[in-house]
Write a structure and sequence with these properties.
Layout: E1 4-7, H1 11-24, E2 27-33, H2 40-44, E3 47-52, H3 63-72, E4 77-79, H4 89-97, E5 101-102, H5 107-114, H6 116-125, H7 141-151, E6 155-159, E7 168-171, H8 174-192, E8 197-201, E9 207-215, E10 221-233, E11 236-242, H9 249-265, E12 271-278, E13 284-290, H10 297-304, H11 308-316, E14 333-340, E15 342-343, E16 349-350, E17 353-354, E18 357-359, E19 366-370, E20 377-378, E21 385-393, H12 396-409, E22 411-413, H13 419-425, H14 429-432, H15 440-457
Parallel strand pairs: 1-2, 1-4, 2-3, 4-5
Antiparallel strand pairs: 6-7, 6-8, 9-10, 9-12, 10-11, 11-14, 12-13, 14-21, 15-16, 17-20, 18-22, 19-21
Helix pairs in contact: 4-5, 7-8, 12-13
Bound molecules: adenosine-5'-diphosphate.
C-alpha cells in the first residue's frame, strides 16, 4: 500500500480523498493556490504545499509545480480527484515517469476514452449500443451537413474532448447547422484547445443513466449498479439518485453487462463510469466514459456500503479487488443535491463571499461532503459547488422526505445558494412521482418564471 499520497485537487473531493487515505493509514500532501491558504483540505492533510497563484492554470493545473511538490515531499502516488488534471493523459504519463503511481487508469486508456469520438468507435467495435452519429470527426460545415442529413435532424454537434456540458450545440434543421457548428467549434477551441467535433442524433429528452465500474490490475471487474443523473441544467448534473427507479430489471442487467464488456475491452484498471442516455422505450446508448472518480459517487456508496475511493486507492496500489460481483447488493435508495454558490433566480450567477452562518443537517442516513466551515471565504476562482447533501433511505419517497427535512435544516448564510431551488424540486409533483428526464429543469424553471410573473401582475 502507498505511504504518502499527494492530492492534486481542492474542495470537497480533496477532503473526501484525504479521509479515505486516513482510513487506509496513508499520509497525505495537499496542494493549494494562494487563494486557498485557509481551505479545509489544506488543514486536514498531513502536509501542504503551495503550488501557485489563484488561477487554476497557475496552481491546480500547474503540472511542473505539482510534480515537484510530489517528488520533494516523497509521495509514492498522486490522486487527481475529478476535473483539473484527472483526465489529462500527459499528466498521468509524467507522473509515472517520475516513478510515482497515478491513481487512475493508464494514460493510453485516458487517451482512448477521453476523446469521445474515439470512445464511440471503441464501443461500436465491441457491440455496445451508441447513439447514431458520425463515424469520425467532422472537419467542415459541408461535410457535417451531409452527415447530418444521413443521421436525420435534430443532430447534436459535440466537442470530442468536451466535458462539463460545454461545446455541445443542437441543430434542429439544416438552416441551423452552420451557426450551431461554428458555436460548437469555437466553444471547443476556447475550452478544450482544439476544434474537434463529431455528430450524434439528438435524442429528445432522454434519461441520463450511468454505471459505476471498478477494474483492478489483475483482470477483475465489477459494477456497482446505476445512477440516474437526469436532473441537469445546461447538460450539467444538479441532482442524482440511485438506483434508477424507471429502469426495468431486464434492461438494468443488460446495461450492467455492457458496461463490464466495455471495461474489459479496454483492460480498464481503476474506477470509472459508463454513461448512457436512455429513451422513453428503454433503448439505451453509450455517450461517454469518465475515467476518474465522479462527483456523484457517494449515492452509490450509500446504497452498496462500498467505500469507492478506498477501493480505488487499493486497486491502484496493485491489490486485487476486495469485492466480488455477487457481494454487491443494492440496499435502499439514495439522493444527492449539489449545493452551489450561485443565484438560481438571477441567471445562476456564481456567488463568492464569507460564510457567516453555517448549520449542517444530521440524523440517520444524512451525509454532507463539503469543504466549507463557519467564516470560510468562498473564493471566486473555482467551481461553484460548495457541498453535496446526500440522503440514504429505505425507498425513494423516504429519501425525498429526508432530503426536504435536511434542506430545511441546512443554513449557509453569506453567499447566495441554490438550496431553495432544491427544496422546490423536492416538492414538485412530477419529480416526486419520478416523471422526469433531462428536460425537467428547463421546464421547471420556465414554470417558476411564469408563476413569478403571474404573482407580480396580480
Ligand atoms: P459532458 O462530457 O460535457 O458531460 P456528455 O456527453 O456526458 O457531455 O453529455 C452530457 C449531457 O448532455 C447528457 O447527460 C445528456 O443530458 C445530454 N446529451 C448528450 N448527448 C446527447 C444526445 N445525443 N441526445 C440528447 N442529449 C444528449
Amino acid at each position: 500500500m502507498f505511504k504518502k499520497v499527494l492530492v492534486a485537487n481542492r474542495g470537497e473531493i480533496a477532503v473526501r480523498i484525504i479521509r479515505a487515505c486516513k482510513v487506509l493509514g496513508i499520509e497525505t500532501v495537499a496542494i493549494y493556490s494562494t487563494a486557498d491558504r485557509e481551505a479545509l483540505h489544506v488543514q486536514l492533510a498531513t502536509e501542504a504545499v503551495c503550488v501557485g497563484g489563484p488561477q487554476a492554470k497557475d496552481s491546480y493545473l500547474n503540472i511542473q509545480n505539482i510534480l515537484s511538490a510530489a517528488t520533494l515531499s516523497g509521495c509514492d502516488a498522486i490522486h487527481p480527484g475529478f476535473g483539473f488534471l484527472s483526465e489529462n493523459s500527459k499528466f498521468a504519463r509524467l507522473v509515472e515517469e517520475c516513478g510515482i503511481t497515478f491513481i487512475g487508469p493508464t494514460p493510453e486508456i485516458i487517451d482512448i476514452m477521453g476523446n469521445k469520438s474515439k470512445a464511440r468507435e471503441t464501443m461500436m467495435a465491441n457491440d455496445v449500443p451508441t447513439v447514431p452519429g458520425s463515424k469520425a470527426l467532422i472537419s467542415n460545415v459541408e461535410e457535417g451537413m451531409k452527415e447530418a442529413e444521413s443521421i436525420g435532424y435534430p443532430v447534436l454537434i459535440k466537442a470530442a474532448n468536451g466535458g462539463g456540458g460545454k461545446g455541445m450545440r443542437v441543430a434542429y434543421a439544416p438552416e441551423e447547422f452552420e451557426n450551431a457548428f461554428h458555436m460548437a467549434t469555437s466553444e471547443a477551441k476556447a475550452n478544450f484547445g482544439d476544434e474537434d467535433v463529431y455528430l450524434e442524433k439528438f435524442v429528445a429528452n432522454p434519461k441520463h443513466i450511468e454505471f459505476q465500474i471498478i477494474g483492478d490490475n489483475h483482470g477483475n471487474y465489477i459494477h456497482l449498479y446505476e445512477r440516474d443523473c437526469s436532473i441537469q441544467r445546461n447538460h450539467q448534473k444538479v441532482i442524482e439518485e440511485a438506483p434508477c427507479r424507471a429502469l426495468s430489471n431486464e434492461v438494468r442487467e443488460r446495461m450492467a453487462a455492457d458496461s463490464i464488456k466495455a471495461a474489459r475491452a479496454i483492460n480498464y484498471n481503476n474506477v470509472g463510469t459508463i454513461e448512457f442516455i436512455v429513451d422513453a422505450d428503454e433503448n439505451y446508448y453509450f455517450i461517454e466514459m469518465n475515467t476518474r472518480i465522479q462527483v456523484e459517487h457517494p449515492i452509490t456508496e450509500m446504497i452498496t456500503g462500498i467505500d469507492i475511493i478506498k477501493e480505488q486507492i487499493r486497486v491502484a496500489s496493485g491489490h486485487v479487488l476486495s469485492i466480488k460481483q455477487e457481494d454487491v447488493k443494492i440496499n435502499g435508495y439514495a439522493i444527492e443535491c449539489r449545493i452551489n454558490a450561485e443565484d438560481p433566480f438571477n441567471g445562476f450567477r456564481p456567488s463568492a463571499g464569507t460564510i457567516d452562518t453555517l448549520v449542517l443537517p444530521g440524523g440517520p442516513g444524512i451525509r454532507v461532503d463539503s469543504a466549507i466551515y463557519q467564516d470560510y471565504s468562498v473564493p471566486p476562482f473555482y467551481d461553484s459547488m460548495m457541498a453535496k447533501l446526500i440522503v440514504h433511505g429505505k425507498n425513494r419517497l423516504e429519501c425525498i422526505r429526508k432530503m426536504r427535512g435536511a434542506l430545511e435544516e441546512l443554513i449557509i448564510d453569506g453567499v447566495t445558494t441554490n438550496i431553495e431551488l432544491h427544496y422546490f424540486i423536492m416538492h414538485n409533483l412530477d419529480y416526486v412521482q419520478g416523471k422526469f428526464d433531462t428536460g425537467f429543469i428547463a421546464g421547471f424553471l420556465k414554470e417558476m418564471e411564469e408563476h413569478e410573473q403571474f404573482i407580480q401582475r396580480a
